[in-house]
Amino acid sequence: MHEQTGTQENARTEYVRRDVLKGMAATGVAVPLTTMAMDAGWGGTAAASALPTEPAGAPDVGVRWLEGVPSELPGATWGTPWPKGAVAEGSSFALHGADGTPVPLQTWPTAFWPDGTVKWTGHAIPGSVAAHEEYTLGAGTPAEPESAVSVSTAGRKVTVSTGVITATIPTRGQHVVSSVERDGVTIATDGELVALGQDDIVDDIEAAPARRHAYRSWIEEVTVEQEGPVRAVVRVDGTHRRARRGKVNGRQGRLPFTLRLYFYAGSESFRVVHSFVLDSDGTTDFVAGLGVRFTVPMRDELYNRHVRLLAGGERMVAEAVQGVTGLRRDPGAEVRAAQVAGERLPDIGTWDPRVGEWMHYVPAWGDHTLSQPNSEGFSVRKRTAAGNGWVPVDQGRRAAGTGYVGGVTGGLVFGMRDFWQRHPAQLDVRGAHTDEAEATVWMWSPEAGPMDTRFYHDGMGQDTHAEQLDGLRITYEDYEPGFGTPYGIARTTELTFWAVAATPSAERLGAMGRTVGATPQVVNSTSHLTSAGVFGGLFAPVDRSDPAKAEIEANLDFLFDYYSAQVEQRHWYGFWDYGDIMHSFDEDRQVWRYDVGGYAWDNSELSPDLWLWYAYMRSGRADVFRMAEAMTRHTGEVDVYHLGEWAGLGTRHNVQHWGCSAKQQRISTAGYRRMFYFLTADERTGDLMRALVDSDETFLALDPLRKIRNEPYEPDRNALAIGLGTDWSGLAFAWLTEWERRGPKAETAEAKLRGTMESIAAMPNGFIQGEGLYDLDTGVFAEAEAAVGVSHLSAMFGQVEVCAELIDLVDMPEFEQAWLQYCRLYNASRDEQTEEVGEHFGNLILRQGHSRLDAYAAVRLGEDAYAERAWARFLDPQDGWEYAHDRDWSSTESEHTLNPADSAPWVSTNTTALFGLAAIQNLALIGDKLPRT
After folding, report:
1. Where is the PcRGLX/YetA-like C-terminal alpha/alpha toroid domain (predicted)?
2. Are 291 and 327 found together in one domain?
């Protein structure tokens, strides 16, 4: 659905202001949702009716592992919420295992309530402790780790020690990690980022290939963000520079990057979160390879050196650099068994002498490659050295993205998360037969060809806005020349490296691979997430206690399971694609409309991100968490611009994630990221949200309604036309998050938040005005004459959620009244709308999704009539594409498609997201008012 067309359909006329809340005096002032007891009949969350004068103290909270006790624990980080008024700033926390054992803990605040009490905390536990199935978190003095993380800064380097490994991070130069040592032994050196650039793409297969250029990382800034005792975080910012023979020789940087290196007490590993920004317009300067590389000293004899490439589970290619098995002469069973196990071989003098004397004739295999060009297959090959031919080893389906190079005295384990999901990816080992091997994790495989980021058509003559609107009417694509550019999009990848003292066993490497594939995550119970009163109090634990609720829950389960299966069956994978889902289905071809204008990738249209996160918080399902996590990683990076004039804006749904000319706040909104941030304390996501605090400046660069305005409009810094729906809600979420995080721009963010809230409330019709003139310098909307400009999209990109949070946080009755007016009137009759504001709202749709506005009004005003209307709109929608309660909730197997796949042509992502949010929020707010059948 398109904000521009929706706005165009609703005429804006002036009228005399009417009473916006008839009968409000009779019901009294509504109390916050979080103060309503569950036994009051509203299904809300229980909390104190007034803030205590002193913080009540942190209650004991149970936390657990998302997917069970991890078999390999490198350390873990998570976030926990606290009820308003419960935890004073500066409070300390302790963690105990299920048996009462104290667990070392590091704690820091990530958000605060307006009264100054702590709202969210981040927590970390070390990698040196035995993992428990469950833990208790509460007030107390934390246990200290047996060996704390230490961070020292001296000269031009930062040194971090976990007690097991020591990493040195230069503050300048091309190496992001100059060395990793263990017990005085150097395990890895010269860690750097590598990239390949290509000037153009050659489409003629008979033409000469395009020339490639090598790039290496160049550090511009290093920041120590945390320094223990349990967790240390070092941030490295830089660019890639041209290199020759492996050494940087260029001065001009490109592909800006941010690395965060995470170290946990007692761990032999460190985690790397790699983010880069694409600074190509998509027509030149193509990226042909992107990776992270370490040099690994090789100390052992050739026959005591090993390469391991993990397929999955404990299955792997397990090769010695110089093999002693399968030879014509037998060195002895003990020798062969030791090499297969990765253990030190007996002294060569004890072997059959015919083998020991002739070992120099046994080839040493120095180079190995595992290439995953797509989600359905990988291949492994090896060679003795550069200049010699490759020998195929084997093939498989989906590699774990984890490998090892080293010897019996130690080496480096390296792994990339979502390896096959993010194809094309590759693992390389080079020079294992020499004194120094190289291990490279390619996030974009150099064998795959360059990233083809060119726009997918030539414009088809759509040179004017009138022609572009005609194109929108036929293909739903909002095209404009020059707007389908990837310049400024980004991608974040997670990697883990272990400095081990010996070649890992199959069992150990398999456990490491599982850790690489799914970072161990501690989570809160659904009951605690609910009772803490966060995220507007718009969710409650899953309840199947009666048939009516159980039926809605079954429908919610069907929709999630269906989309989860579609990701696999339709192969929604790939470097730029993984994490997103498709927008609409093509019933005739029985495929999603991957090639039709604005019907392809969803790009957060109508808030599937929120649907998934609310679905997780009420259910605790690990599969929901992981799907929401992948979506957050995608939509916050790929669908949003991070450089250039559109930095801070996102791109509407399209065949390509960056293809649509509608660049808007509704996609970039921090509201889609903040749940993941607070649940995991992920710093990269925090960066993305902080970058949006000043995104109101983007309205100077681009008018989102430029194609459909009836009158000439030039952006004016002191009178910017900003929509009160999808535009303001995105801005408000960024300001709210910065304010509650107490970020460097918190004071400005709070002022803009309160200023816009007050000036919206002061408008004759509040949110019903549709648009206001915003002053960038004062952070308020100008006084306005009465108007009506309601769009079916205005509230569907996080506005419901941000208003619920703001009303709970900020004591501003006039703002609450303005929002409740919108909630009450959207699903009202035309006569009711006209009676209150002078005219009706036009032909509105999406009433099922808007039923949650009725539910919210029912709770705030204490009026059952709105609850009745909410359930009526939800269960018996009038729009043909919304999900009726009594429909057939099932799918069938597609016929004649490339792969077997389920099809439910009646399912669309717009409707699914709104149905999911309406079901979740209605059940939480007015679940006790649900009609029983």
Report:
1. 520-930
2. no
